[in-house]
C-alpha cells in the first residue's frame, strides 16, 4: 500500500511540474529589455512620451506630455506565445484609488509580433491590427477592451468604452486573456469571487498570441498608472492528461498488489 501511495504522489508531482505557472516577469529588477514599445494609435500629431518603468517590484506606465482629449495608445510586448488552453494573467494593485487623470488606461495586450508597425512620430494614424487588449479605465472606474483582426486597423472586432464590474471596481485584483481555441480568446478581470469574462473575440489570424504584454492609453502629464505585477502564462491540465494519469495510477496499483 505504501508503494501505491508513493506512486500516486510521484505521478501527481510530475503532472504539477508539467503544468507549473511560468512567471514571465515579476519586475524585481529594472530590466525591461525583453519588451518592445509600439505606438499603435494617435488621434493627432502627438509626441512619443509614454514609457514603462519598474518601481518597488512592480511595473508602471507614465507619460511626459499633456494630451487632453487626444489619444496616444501603445503596446509593450515580449516574444512569448499564448497557446490553446493557456491563460495570460496580470496582477493589478491600487484600483481603489480615485481617478486622477483624464485617461489612465492600463492592462494586457496580445499581438502577432512584439515589434509591430508604429504610427510615425509627429503624425496621426491607426496601426491597431491583429491585436487584442483588456484594461482598467481608472478615469471611469470600469473595464475596457478592444480587438483588431486582419490588416485594416480602422475596423475593430469590437470595442467598449467601459464596463462597470458587478463586483466593484476596487475589488479587481487582476486581468486575464484566455485562449480557448486557435481562434477564440476570452478577455476579463479577476476578483476574490473568481474570473469574470467581459468579451470573447473570434479571430482569423492565428498568429495573434505570438507576443504578450501591456497596453496603455495615457493622456495627462505625469500620469502614473496603478502598479502591476506577476505577468504570467497559466496552463491547465487537459482532461485527457488527468485521465491518463489516473489510469496509470490504477494500473500500477493493481500491478503492485499482485506482487
Q: Strand percentage, roughly?
A: 35-45%
In oligomeric terms, what are we looking at? single chain
Rg = 21 Å
Tally the helices: 2
Strand count, sense and closure of the main sheet? 8 strands, antiparallel
| Structural classification | mainly beta
Mean pLDDT metric: 83
Show unreliable segments: 1-19, 238-256
Determine the N-to-C terminus distance.
11 Å
Query: What's the helix-strand series?
Result: HEEEEEEEEEEEEEEEEH
Architecture overview:
The chain has 259 residues and is mostly beta strands. Helices cover 14% and strands 41% of the residues. The chain is built from two helices and 16 strands. It has helices at 2-18, 239-258; strands at residues 23-25, 36-42, 50-55, 58-63, 72-78, 86-92, 104-111, 125-126, 131-137, 142-148, 156-163, 174-179, 184-191, 194-202, 211-218, 228-235. Strands 8-2-5-15-7-9-10-11 form an eight-stranded antiparallel β-sheet, with no helix packed on it. The protein has a six-stranded antiparallel β-sheet with strand order 1-16-6-12-13-14, with no helix packed on it. Helix 1 (2-18) packs antiparallel against helix 2. The radius of gyration is 21 Å and the shape is globular. The N and C termini lie close together (11 Å).
Task: Please outline what is shown here.
With 259 residues, the protein is mainly β. The protein has helices spanning 2-18, 239-258; strands at residues 23-25, 36-42, 50-55, 58-63, 72-78, 86-92, 104-111, 125-126, 131-137, 142-148, 156-163, 174-179, 184-191, 194-202, 211-218, 228-235. A hairpin with a 4-residue loop joins β9 (131-137) and β10.
Amino acid at each position: 500500500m505504501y508503494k501505491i501511495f508513493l506512486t500516486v504522489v510521484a505521478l501527481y508531482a510530475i503532472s504539477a511540474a508539467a503544468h507549473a505557472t511560468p512567471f514571465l516577469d515579476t519586475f524585481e529588477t529594472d530590466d525591461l529589455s525583453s519588451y518592445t514599445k509600439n505606438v499603435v494609435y494617435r488621434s493627432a500629431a502627438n509626441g512619443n512620451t509614454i514609457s514603462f518603468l519598474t518601481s518597488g517590484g512592480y511595473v508602471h506606465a507614465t507619460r511626459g506630455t499633456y494630451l487632453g482629449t487626444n489619444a496616444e495608445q501603445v503596446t509593450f510586448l515580449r516574444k512569448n506565445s499564448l497557446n490553446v488552453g493557456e491563460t495570460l494573467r496580470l496582477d493589478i494593485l491600487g484600483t481603489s484609488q480615485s481617478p486622477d487623470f483624464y485617461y489612465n488606461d492600463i492592462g494586457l495586450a496580445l499581438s502577432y509580433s512584439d515589434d509591430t508597425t508604429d504610427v510615425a512620430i509627429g503624425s496621426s494614424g491607426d496601426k491597431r491590427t491583429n491585436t487584442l487588449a483588456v484594461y482598467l479605465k481608472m478615469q471611469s472606474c470600469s473595464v475596457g477592451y478592444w480587438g483588431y483582426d486582419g490588416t485594416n486597423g480602422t475596423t475593430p472586432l469590437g470595442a467598449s468604452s467601459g464596463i462597470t464590474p458587478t463586483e466593484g471596481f476596487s475589488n479587481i485584483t487582476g486581468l486575464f486573456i484566455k485562449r480557448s481555441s486557435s481562434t477564440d480568446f476570452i478577455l476579463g478581470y479577476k476578483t476574490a469571487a473568481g474570473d469574470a469574462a467581459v468579451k470573447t473575440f473570434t479571430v482569423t489570424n492565428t498568429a495573434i498570441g505570438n507576443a504578450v504584454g501591456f497596453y496603455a492609453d495615457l493622456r495627462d502629464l505625469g500620469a502614473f498608472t496603478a502598479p502591476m505585477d506577476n505577468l504570467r502564462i497559466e496552463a491547465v491540465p487537459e482532461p485527457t492528461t488527468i485521465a491518463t494519469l489516473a489510469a496509470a495510477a490504477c494500473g500500477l496499483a493493481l500491478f503492485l498488489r499482485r506482487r
